[in-house]
Design goal:
By secondary structure, the protein is of the alpha/beta class. 28% of the residues lie in helices and 20% in strands. A hairpin with a 5-residue loop joins strand 12 and strand 13.
Length: 372
Amino acid sequence: MSTRGAETERAAGVDPLDSLRGPSDPPCDVFLTGMVFLDIIFTGLDSAPVRGTESWARGMGSSPGGVANMATALARLGLRTSLAAAFGDDHYGEYCWDALEQGEGIDLSLSRTVPGWHSPVTVSMAYEGERTMVSHGHDAPPLDGAAPPPYPPRARAAVASLAPGRSEEWVNQLHRSGARIFADVGWDETGRWDLAGLPDLAHCEAFLPNAEEAMRYTRTDCPRAAARALADKVRYAVVTLGAEGAYAVDGGSGETAEVPAIQVSALDPTGAGDVFVAGFVTGTLAGWPLADRLAFAGLIAALSVQEFGGSLSAPGWGQVAAWWHTVREHAGQDPAALAGRYAFLEPLLPAEARPWPLRRAVPTIGFRPAPA
């Protein structure tokens, strides 16, 4: 991944929490932990690979993936992000560490490099607006004799990925310390779809499943009904509706919000869900109205699918500003309606917008700097 792109995004100087910061604040805004993959992404395929044939892709990118998608999306939106993860003791691991720490400004002080352990790898192929992935990796072995890190840190918030039958002590610790816990969830391979099997949900302020997941967990046949049912469990139940946008219920006040999706030409949907969650976390910590949080999350998710890769495609404020300056002049949808819906962003955006569309990705790992 090109660090120049990330540096430019950070140079926009946007801090969505600037007016809320004080001397007693925790050291980080959002804490995450999970597995970091080396993602290799192929785009521009006309169809799915056919058995026994060779397919050529028109585009390619490499970037840190897995939990790095979410960490990068949060960092590019100006949140102080801390990531605890294991990194492989190989060139892939070294590249991912450098890209996240130096390129994105993510705090890796709670992360570690594991001697003799190779990085997990995912190959993603994007075509017809969908993706197919092949992954390989092993759980990181424990470090013999190593003292556990001071974990987790004080944080405003954390993002957890819930899984059936699994409880994470760090989620409980952060919840007790006053951190706000946001959670997504994956497909339930057990087929039970039992909310009682997600013990950490009790510690969560917001739960953000997709429509199919929400309906299965609540035994409903409508994603909006599913969101209302989930609002009995968490303060904010947010259900993503794919091309229809997103729907949310505030379980405390009863407020509901629904925002349609922005119609874009999708290149690669990898990481769009992570970007959506990062946008909702940002808006929630900044204290925005519920509808504005949904609109912002949907916007940056839409911007992300126009580029390839997970962490490669996460937009920063520079890209949001470029979109904003363009949409008021011409857009495939009603520019006036879009400008009205997203006018709340204008005070935050950098005055100088870069040309649209933007391109940040580089196609491979380890380009050497040009000689002086």
